[in-house]
Amino acid sequence: MPKAELHLHLDGCLRPNTAIELAQRHGIDAPHTWHDMFDTLVAAAHPGSQAALLKSFELPLALMQWEDSLARIATELVEDKAADRVRYMEVKWAPAFHRAQGLSLDEVIGIVASATAHAAERCGVEVRLCVVAIRAHDVATNVEVARAAVRHRANGVTGFDLAGHEASHPDPTVHAEAFDVARAGGLGITLHTGELPDDGALVWRALQVRPQRIAHGASAAADPKLLDELIARNITLDLCPTSNVQAGTVATFAEHPLPQLVRAGVPVTINTDDTTISDVTLSEEWLACVDELGLTLPELWACNLHALRAAFVDQPTQARLLDEFHAWARPLPELH
Ligand SMILES: [Zn+2]
């Protein structure tokens, strides 16, 4: 299947061998063998918590403070996704986390934009960038990040996100000014929420920043009124079931509410979140949704098409990709 993936983090997708080489080059204390590096990068499935999952990003972020690291990891992510037949992807990352060795926000965004654009052209895929602000950062920093993101619109930045530890920073409206700057600058608005096992209250609160999409949001399934609200406002949930098991959103993959959300009519896309940290390709994630959650092929395909419709991308590119996906599906009556 040609695929679209909207919820994908640059710092969650390092190849283990690349991490080993970059650690050696930059003098970072890290495992030396593929197996040890793999074990370090991949987050444990159990016992999951968002805090434990976020710890998995510490080594990747330590390695991603230099131009060569950022460019290589961005290039390889596009190559790896193209090999999994992802035709459209949005790459998320938090530029403010990559300044420890003196890079500026504009430099960090420029490096990732340039590397992904070159790799996208070479691989024949479409890539857009979603700049992430961090819940724990102060308001001024996130406004600065939003301004930098807007400055790079011509370089493929089309989205603005907020992520980070939700339990300790539950109120995204603190960062309303950053969302306003991004929205006024023409960026699509999304934010991470609903990753903690709750009754949907955090998702309700996230709606106050008027997102077009929500990264995760699985906990919304507990509240039928909230589902009606998501449908009425056409807000898409970019779900990541494997990652949600690691974060403790659900106890097991089989308990993930993805099919329930799809069948309730909530706009849903299916994503990996972090191909390395969750040790799952998009093909594997989709297969698991069919095999373990009972999603039908037409439901899966509808989520895929919806990802293109909800993408933060210009209309001509969206129309071209929809044509391509429809052409692929035309000989397959089981998808209709
Ligand atoms: Zn995420």
Overview of the structural elements:
- With 336 residues, the protein is an alpha/beta fold.
- It has one domain (3-319): Metal-dependent hydrolases (TIM Barrel, Alpha-Beta Barrel), CATH 3.20.20.140.
- The protein is 46% helix and 13% strand.
- The protein has an 8-stranded parallel sheet, with helices on both faces.
- The radius of gyration is 19 Å and the shape is globular.
- It starts with a strand and ends in a 7-residue tail after the last helix.
- It binds zinc ion (ZN).
- Zinc ion (ZN) is lined by residues 7, 9, 163, 192, 215, 273.
Write a brief structural summary.
Helix content is 46%, strand content 13%.
Q: What is the CATH domain class?
A: Alpha Beta
Distance between the termini: 14 Å
CATH architecture: Alpha-Beta Barrel
Summarize the amount of helix as a percent range: 40-55%
Instruction: Report the CATH topology name.
Output: TIM Barrel
Question: What is the average of the pLDDT values?
Answer: 96
Helix and strand content put the structural class at: alpha/beta
Please summarize the sheet with the most strands: 8 strands, parallel
Regions with little confidence, pLDDT below 50 for 5+ residues: none
Topology (SSEs and partners):
Layout: E1 3-5, H1 16-26, H2 34-41, H3 50-55, H4 58-63, H5 67-83, E2 86-93, H6 105-123, E3 126-134, H7 139-151, E4 157-163, H8 176-184, E5 188-193, H9 201-206, E6 213-216, H10 224-232, E7 236-239, H11 241-247, H12 258-263, E8 268-270, H13 282-291, H14 297-310, H15 315-329
Residues 7, 9, 163, 192, 215, 273 line the site of zinc ion.
